[in-house]
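Page 42, continued from yesterday. The earlier attempt failed because a stray header line got pasted into the input along with the sequence. Redoing it now with the clean sequence only.
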Amino acid sequence: MVGILALAAVPAAAQDTHYWSIQYGPVAQLVGGQVIGGVPDLSATFYNPGALALRNESAYLLSTESVQWEKISSQAEPGLQVLDTSSSRFGSAPSLLAGALPSRWLGENTALAWSFLTRQQLDVRLGQRLTDPLGVGVHSAAESYLDVDAEEDWGGLTFARPLSPSLGIGATLYGVYRGQRTRRELTLSAVAPGGDALSAYGVTDAEFSHYAMLLKLGLAWQSPKWNAGLSITTPSLGLFGSGKAAYTVSTVGVDANGDGRPDPPILVTDEQEDLDSEYHSPWAVGVGASRHFGRTRVYASAEWYGAVDRFEVLAVAADTPGAVRLGQELRSVLNAGLGVEQSLSNDISVYGAFHTDFSASVGDASENVSVSDWNLYHFSGGLSFRFKNNRFTLGAAWARGSKSRPVDSPIPPQDLPNLGLDRSVEIRYSKITILLGFVFGS
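This time it went through. Structure tokens are written below.
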């Protein structure tokens, strides 16, 4: 039975509390996003708006298309009867689309651009059905299901001006949408040879959407050999949002107190609609630099993200049983990375990079609406080449991470004792991304 409960709670194969998991722009993807101090294209709208004022390329449109394969697996502690399980997903990866606007709108010294990007994305559907999972002598059946779909999208308008030929300042005003749907469900029925019966059913169901605004500021400096930059991202300013939540726990025939007799049946349920929703993001400060060494260019960046105190994602009444599952808390994290570009000719370059990607999640999925609480480490590389007035990039990235923690069940462990629900399970995650980028009119 423990295995069935674990299957109902395996985290999704994607990220919703990582800040450096998704990279934007043809070159930035290949060097792991280490371009705060040296953004060569329209991805400056995100990484450092100030660099847009110093951009040498005349590109009018930037697009990235990628596909990715993600896998997540769980492995129980020795002696714990949990089934090993895994889930994988192949599909399109989050991307950036950006374009330049006519500078004459606000004067020749003002650079304008628009951009749209996916900041977070999580999409997983797990399902399981087992016959006689409790072993020989007990006729039993179990079903488990996890359905999570979360996405955060940013759409922005960037303004940038040069303060001197080597110094630029800029800002991007983003409108932010975050939406999530999560449903965990568990069913177990068993009949012993003597006629004793057990039934357990649990489900949590929550859905919300939230709209906000935030500002990203950037300062960029460049010289023939050195580039450097500073970026500051403000916390989001919530505008409006709504959602709904439901929670049900039911057990029959369970002996929770161990006296040899089944406890009275339990049924706890609640459903609320038209709830107000909130989602908070932190302050962030990033610094970066790049330097030319002949035909070699080295990129380095670091970015600190502040903590976010616990808040209610959905304004559920305090006495609602499922309220604890509708909160969020984020810790402060510092990520850093290093990238290298080697120019083979005026039209061809190769790249490689490494960067960290620490989860900001505090607690586990039983306490937060987010589920990705493992740290990741990313490796990336590829090449870029120019064809006429356009530049193309091809590459790949690989990320991996793991986390050991107890499983999360819709039914609290104390309501199903002696089943090991408080024991830890090793969660392993890996992702391979194939990158394809375009810069038109460069």
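Notes: The radius of gyration is 25 Å.
Reminder to self: strip header lines before submitting.
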